[in-house]
Amino acid sequence: MIDLKSIYSDTGVAHKRSIALAMLVAWFGVVSVLVWTHLVWGDEVRALSLALQGDTVFAMLKGLHGEGHPAIWYLLLRTAHALVPHPEALLLVSIGVATVAMVIFVLRAPLACQFWL
After folding, report:
1. Residue-wise pLDDT tens digits, 62-106
2. Which one of 18, 49, 100, 113 is separated from 40 by 20 to 30 angstroms, measured CA to CA?
């Protein structure tokens, strides 16, 4: 019979969190190398160009009608470019959004991790 207290003990939770952190660090290392060696494609440059169009944020938002990405993507790109005025701002936003998504996945996904204990 399986002892549920031993599976869900504090030690098990700490162990799962350390494995989740190790997964996240490994993922971030691989993705960082891939992002910084990635050649930016035309659609990515277009998104950055659209984010930088217009003198104000409202002018930029007017020009986004019919675009495929949500407006928040262009707002993130414009903000990042204001902080880091280089095309690499696109890469920073991409890896930032992907990292947030991965953190949510690793910490909240209902994965069967009992074999890690």
Report:
1. 888 777 788 899 999 999 999 999 888 899 999 999 999 988 888
2. 100
Q: Tokens 């659609």 sit at which residue?
A: 43
Structure-block tokens of residue 92: 């920073």
How many Cα atoms are found within 13 Å in the side-chain-facing hemisphere of 66?
1
Long-range contacts of 57-62 (CB under 8 A, 24+ apart): none
Structure tokens at 58: 């409202």
Q: What phi and psi, each to the nearest 5 degrees, are found at residue 84?
A: -125, 90
Domain-located, residue 89 = yes
* Per-residue pLDDT tens digits for 27-61: 999 998 998 888 878 878 888 888 889 888 888 88
CB 59 within 8 A of CB 53: yes
Domains of the chain: total: 1
Q: What angle do CA 70, 75, 79 make, to 5 degrees?
A: 155
Q: What is the pTM of this model?
A: 0.71
Give a yes or no: residue 2 inside a domain.
Answer: no
